[in-house]
Amino acid sequence: MRHDPLKALIHIPKTAGTSMNAQLAAHGGRGRKHIEQLAGHPWRLARLAARADWVSGHLPLRDMQAQLGAVTDRPLEIYAFVRDPIAQVASHYNWWYVVWHRGPLSWWRQAAPFRALSRRIRAADPTDPDQVIAILRDNAPLFLNMQADYLLGTRTAMDPAAIRAALTRLAFVGLNDDLPALCAAMGLPAPKQTPRRNVSPYYFDKRVFWEGPVRDFLEDAHAGDIALFQAVQRMRGKDRAAPADRPKPR
Hints:
InterPro entries: P-loop_NTPase
Structural class: alpha/beta
Strand order of the largest sheet: 2-3-1-4-5
Organism: Marimonas arenosa
Largest sheet: 5 strands, parallel
Protein name: Sulfotransferase family protein
Number of helices: 13
């Protein structure tokens, strides 16, 4: 029976988690990604937790702790990283174009409500801020403050001191454009170049998310993620750095 820590990566959607999963698969020993697929199968999760060096999944911190804690006595080391909150929303919005353009296998793998969302997004005018805002507002749990919900358990903005205190439950939290730092924290070799997996072209001009009414809407409605990202930037000493995936102004 293993008593060493089990490393667990919280994979927040559209934050480059696929790239980190590839690093773990190549250098992290025995493990499994997408452990959210084991929900409802505690015996399978228990068997995995008894043998694995690492796991990864689309699970908020509260669920990662609860589900793994229920099936193993091994200590948990939980890791995560966050992405520029505007870029994460833009990427997630674009994803619903991607699932269509990837073909029938990708399309029919999606649940019916997500196919309906994809149809609505693809039918909308992405240059019309009002249409974009309406989609974001109507699907707030999917698009707004997801990173804060995953790591802090709330979708409302917290002050920086409270965020730092909450993040002490994690072994490490970093920025998605600095994967070498997360690799080092998880005991993996530094990649020779930053890996890029599951990277898709944009099917609209993503600058709409950084400009005018959409940006104004996100400054308020997405404040939980913005506060979290700014706090992690300060923790990592990169509060003056512009995220790599922020588009150039028009």
